[in-house]
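quick one
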Amino acid sequence: MSKKYKIAVIGGDGTGPEVVAEGLKVLKVVAKKHNFEYGLKDFDFTGQRYLKTGKLVSDEDIEELKTFDSIYLGAVGDPDVKPGIIEHGVLLKLRFALDQYINLRPVKLYPNVWTPVRDKGPAEIDFVVVRENSEGLYVGTGGYLKKGTSDEVATQVSVNTRKGVERCLRYAFEYTRKRNKRKQLTLVGKTNVLTYAWDLWERAFHEIGEKEYKDIKLDYAHVDATCMWFVKNPEWFDVIVTDNMFGDIITDLGAMIQGGMGIAAGGNINPEGVSMFEPIGGSAPKYTGKNVINPLAAIGALQMLLEELGEDKAAADIEQAIIKTVAKMPSQAAGKMGMGTREVGDTVVANL
Ligand code: IPM
Ligand code: MN
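structure w/ 3-isopropylmalic acid:
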C-alpha cells in the first residue's frame, strides 16, 4: 500500500504562491513516479488577509497544522503591512508554536551556477548550516525604559537555555554523522565578546562532542571570521552549528555564494513534530505576478520536505532534475533566467 501524506500549503505573500505552484507541479510528478499519495490544504496566511480581517496565525490554526505531515511555505512579507507584523504573526509564530527548533540551510553550489566567489566551484562550496530556530535574540525578551524621552533605554536579550542549546547541538552532531562527508562540525559563535551565551554553547559543544561523538572533528570559528571564510575558503566547512541571529545573517551570505536567493532552500524542523520548508528568500513584491521569479529555491524546499518525510529517492530525483535545469539557465536571478518562472518549473518536470 502506498503512503499518503497530508501537506499544508502556505503560499503566503508576494511571489510565494507562484513559486509554490511550481513546486506542486514537481510534487505531482514525483509522487506518481515514486508511488506515494498526498492531500493538500491551502492556508491563507497573508498580509492581504490581515489587512481585511486582522487575522494572522491563530492557536486553532496551529492545532490544525499539527495534524499535518509537513508544511510547504512560499514567502512572508507584504509592503502594505508595517514591518514585523507578518514576520512575527505568521513565520515566527509558526516556527515557535510548532517548536521547529532547527533551521537547516544547505549551501551547495551546483555545477554551471554562477558564484560571485572567483576560483571556487561545486567542490569548494558544499556545506550545511544548522541554525538554532527557537531561542536567542528571537524570543522577544526585552523592553523599553523611558520610551520616547532622551533617557530612553531599549534592551533586547538573547536567551540561551541549556536544553535548547543541547537539542540543537545534538541534531547538528547527528546530521554531521549522517552526512558522512568530512565529519567536521564547526561551532560558529562569538566567544571573545559574548562571554555568557557562547560560553554555554562552547561547554555544551565540547561535553556532548567529546563524549558522544568521538568520530566527529570539533571546530570553532567566530561569526565575523566565518563571513570572511565563506568568501575566502568556503571549502573549510562541512556542517556549521550556530544560534538564531548569527544563523540568520550567515545564511544570507551563504545563499549568495551558492548562486543567490533564487536557489537557496531551507527547512524549519521539529524532529519530533511537524516541519516546514521554504525558500530562504523573501516575498520579492516587485516581481509578483510577472513570471520572472526563480522557483528553484521553492523546488529545493520541496526536495528537503520529501527527504524529511523519508521519500529519499523522490528527493534525490528532484535534486538531479534541478542540476539538469540550472545547466540550461544563464543566471539564477529573477528576470535573467532565460525563461520564466513557469518554464523553469516545466523544465524541472521534464527533467524528472
Ligand atoms: C529568514 C528570515 C526571517 C528570519 C524573517 C523574515 C523573520 O529572514 O527566514 O531568514 O529572520 O528568520
Ligand atoms: Mn533571514
